[in-house]
Write a structure and sequence with these properties.
alpha/beta, six-stranded parallel sheet, two-stranded parallel ribbon, 10 helices, 12 strands
């Protein structure tokens, strides 16, 4: 693909979206699509349309399934109707897998039974199906925890701000940075990769019990905290991109804060 591709990023002011605009904007012509300018760009035509939008609050989504459906799934359907594009890139989530805690259950080609998913993962999976049905060409990136310069929620934001965590210290989390996600998208575009799904995350997991050492402060855990283990098989994307360890992505994030 040409280096002068036109790219739209839906959710262009969000944590991931804003960094995709910044990093991809160094080599492509990138337009952020936001709530404020959505109507103005509606009907626009782009080489690539990246959907980095939708609700990212998993606990809220599971408590408010209808509102999450509107925010994540209906908005995805609207975007495939409201814009013209040659390729659609959908940023999905690790929680579309029924068991996201190990490599064997998270291979991209694995068949997913949606009846075993909580609302958040179910709506992400529905959005994937909408994209696969409506777009002639697509890429779907399933991400774990994504760390970026404008992080505003989640486990590591809570640690930075001295808030109690809702995950226990024996949790193990797979991580990646917004920069790495942008670089992987660029690699896939340059290779002309088509109609494919990729797990996009760091190698291995970061043990949360090590957090206080990295952040230089004690970590407080809520009494309602739950153990979480997230680790996808990333061998498919690793074959085309030099992934780093989840621990290294955390270190990169901390250096940028």
């Amino acid at each position: 693909m040409s280096e002068r591709l036109t790219i739209a990023v839906l959710g262009g002011h969000g944590m991931l979206g804003a960094d995709l605009v910044k990093f991809l904007g160094t080599r492509y012509s990138v337009t952020p699509i936001t709530r404020e300018n959505y109507s103005a760009h509606k009907g626009g035509e782009f080489d690539v349309f990246i959907n980095a939008n939708g609700n990212s609050k998993r606990f809220w989504a599971n408590q408010h399934p209808y509102e999450d459906f509107l925010a994540s799934t209906v908005s995805a359907y609207d975007s495939v109707v409201d814009f013209k594009f040659r390729k659609y890139v959908y940023i999905s989530s690790i929680v579309v897998y029924e068991d996201p805690s190990g490599l064997s259950g998270t291979i991209e080609e694995r068949e997913i039974n949606p009846s075993n998913l909580q609302p958040y993962g179910f709506h992400k999976y529905l959005s994937e199906l909408i994209v696969r049905h409506a777009a002639k060409d697509y890429l779907i990136l399933r991400c774990p925890i994504v760390l970026g310069s404008s992080l505003k929620k989640g486990t590591f934001y809570d640690i930075l701000n001295g808030r109690p965590l809702f995950v226990t210290l024996d949790s193990k989390l797979q991580l990646i940075t917004t920069r790495a996600v942008a670089e992987i998208i660029a690699v896939l575009l340059e290779r002309g990769t088509s109609r494919a799904v990729f797990n996009v995350g760091g190698l291995g997991t970061f043990p949360l019990k090590e957090a206080s050492r990295y952040f230089g402060r004690p970590v407080v855990v809520s009494e309602n905290a739950e153990k979480q283990i997230y680790e996808m098989d990333v061998s498919k994307v690793r074959a085309i991109y030099p992934l780093k360890k989840s621990e290294e992505y955390l270190q990169e994030f901390l250096k940028s804060t």
